[in-house]
Amino acid sequence: MKNSLVLVLNSGSSSLKFALIDSVNGDTLLSGLGECFGLPEAVIGWKFDGQKSEEAITAEDNHHQHAINRIVKLVDDLGFSEQLVAVGHRAVHGGEKFTSTVRIDDEVLAEIDKLADLAPLHNPAGAKGIRAAMAAFPALPQFAVFDTAFHQTMPPKAYTGAISRELYEEYGIRRYGFHGTSHYFVSREAAKMLDKPVEEASFISVHLGNGASVCAISNGESVDTSMGFTPLAGLMMGTRSGDLDPGIIEFLMKKGWSQEKVFDTLNKKSGFLGVSGLTSDARGILEAMENGHEGAKLAFEVFTYRVAKYIGSYMIPLSRLDAIIFTGGIGENSLPIRREILNNLKLLGFVEDVQGNEAARFGAAGVIAKSDVLGAVAMVIPTNEEFVIAQQSVALL
Ligand code: ADP
Questions:
Q1: What is the CA radius of gyration of the chain?
Q2: Which among 122, 287, 334, 337 is the best mutation to test ligand 1's pocket, defined by most ligand atoms within 8 Å of the CB?
Q3: Is the CB of residue 209 below 6 angstroms from any atom belonging to ligand 1?
Q4: Which residues partner with 367 through β-bridges?
């Protein structure tokens, strides 16, 4: 029996995603989600061996702790306790402090608490999950894998805002970027597929899920990325606006909109949802478009055009390109969206490999287009952030 299992936890303010991962081959043995924390309908559900189960969380307080205690029992009942060697946490914001995965101790936890200033939505929730897991698994080492860490190699010209330097010095305002674990994983997988050492490979990695970001990767390192000080920057997303003229914020506030209403709109009512007036879900957009819905068609066009513009501009930090990599729920599955992005990239010489594009769906990787002009391909690589978290945790044991 191998002792190589890592419990991967992703703790949000009202939810907790978990997965028991084999750090050697990436197999998911158990996965689940606790949600509606803080509400009477708090619940925890999981999938094991193809079977789904669900249970209400009846406790009145600290649903994170109750969910994690339930996971401890679940892991034990299923007979995995002996093989469990570490707990790996997905941590959102590591600021400039964390440039790679770290073993969690009191000092690290205090730093994560401090960084709540930069990520008030994410870091306190992450810290709550870590504390609950430390109480539940006192004997196991715990690790934090930061969403920002991979982007800490960006040069100052990429992360510095064109604003007063004092804002950086006083508040740490700069580009940090997120989705780092995903961009890291797919770039390593793409290099393997192209049979090239990743240290010599250059990519534009395009993660399109509910959140979306592009990353320019030169010789294996992130050199620019589209999310910024917060995940609101860059691409249009499910409900986030992505880049917009900051003057709009002033305009709306002068019209009497509260700060809360403005940012709720930009974070939760924009993107696919805002432009279509219909849904934040790409599948719903494509379906409605087929039925002639004008808003959905416009949302599709704005989204694909903006992704293509980012890809075009991310040629700038690279001296050559090996591949454009598509990943995330949309990037891995949506043929029409990938096709339209490629249509927008004709000037860069990309010609769709129709069969390849049709085959690379539902978990299959593959080449979907080629550019003779650039000597590059476009490919699909399914992301696996949990596997990276498990591998990096075990590597530090
Ligand atoms: P998250 O960022 O929350 O992890 P995902 O990476 O799972 O999200 O991506 C969710 C998005 O992927 C949704 O917009 C969903 O509609 C889209 N998606 C999933 N499967 C398909 C599909 N077969 N075709 C088109 N879009 C899909």
A1: 21
A2: 334
A3: yes
A4: 379
